[in-house]
Amino acid sequence: MILQIDRGNTRLKWRLREDRRDVAHGAIPNDEVYSSLSSILAGQSIQHIFIVSVLGEAQDRTFADWAVKEFGVMPRFARAESKCAGVTNGYAFPERLGVDRWLAMLASYTRVNGSCVVVDCGSAITVDLLDQQGVHHGGYIAPGIAAMQRALSINTQGVKVQGGVMSTGLAPGRDTVSAVAAAQLAMMVGLVQQAIQQLSLIENSAFPPALLFTGGDGSLLAKFFNTAVFVPDLVLDGLELIFSAD
Known about the structure:
This protein is α/β, with parallel strands linked by helices and 246 residues long.
């Protein structure tokens, strides 16, 4: 069995794989990771653990120590590289690109074999541009829904929105809550539209690039684009791709 893990800022996604097929999968809040995984995976025979993490070296070491104690397996952590799977990293210092973005790009390019815009809607919203040859032309990073709402609540007196309020349309709101929710969605849609336009200009192409979404809010945002594809495990697909030779 292979255990694949995506450690994000708010939750951990995992899937257990055998012969490239899902055996089980799920998501766990970060404050419940160790107890929940111990219970869920009890009795499983795990030979490999592959991890993509954005939490930093200290937390990665803690998790690795726990995994060795719990399963007798030393995890392997994905890292952003200059080139992999036909994709060329657009950062001057490739290792500084977020590894979750890198893996989502690898999986997207492998999936469409051509130019694409890759959108990950999680704690942050990231949008990355890949041309027909797999060259990364940079991207955009914006606050996610919860972060936008926290910023408004902290920095304003009259705009207080509690919880993950999300609009289902782009029409202007007629109360404070719906106005905030509609604005958040409109900003995200506009950001993706800008990325599509930029990549079309870079490639001087009349044909729009493929558009792939992932992340917790990705399925909602994808509905506003006719050609969009929502791939919930895009980052884990990239993780499997870089370790597939093992």
